[in-house]
Design goal:
The chain is mostly beta strands. The chain has one domain. Helices cover about 10% and strands about 30% of the residues. It has two helices and four strands, in the order H-E-E-H-E-E. The chain has a four-stranded mixed sheet with strand order 2-1-4-3, with no helix packed on it. A hairpin with a 2-residue loop joins strand 1 and strand 2. The protein starts with a helix and ends in a 20-residue tail after the last strand.
């Protein structure tokens, strides 16, 4: 389930954890689109707030990192 879908039912302060880093947010309005599109791994309680653990984002390489040249197609 994506975070955006879960937050349709939740309107409280929450803490997001991605790759072991916790970020506290007072409302869902403070979240970025990138965070809203992440998949939820688990939901727990933490100090009276919801702790939502997100699936670690996959690292994708751009063509520029492979030294691909768009002008010449090589």
């Amino acid at each position: 389930m994506k975070l955006r879908d879960l937050l349709k039912f939740i309107d409280t302060s929450l803490t997001l954890e991605t790759m072991g880093v916790k970020e506290k947010h007072e409302s869902k309005a403070a979240l970025t689109q990138e965070q809203m599109n992440c998949m939820v791994k688990s939901i727990e309680t933490d100090e009276g707030n919801l702790l939502i653990k997100l699936v670690d984002p996959k690292q994708t390489n751009a063509l520029e990192q492979y030294e691909y040249c768009f002008e010449c197609g090589m």
